[in-house]
Amino acid sequence: MTHPFLFLQWLEQQLHTHLGEHVTYTWFVMLVLFALAFLATRSLKTIPSGMQNFMEVVVTGVENLIDETMGHKGRTYFPLIATFALFILVSNLIALIPGFYPPTANLNTNFALALTVFAMTHIIGFKEHGIGYLKHFMGPILVLAPLMFIIEIIGHLARPLSLSLRLFGNMYGHEIVLMIFFALVPFLLPIPMMMMGVLVALIQTFVFTLLAMIYIAGALEEAH
Question: Does residue 3 belong to any structural domain of this protein?
Answer without folding.
Answer: no
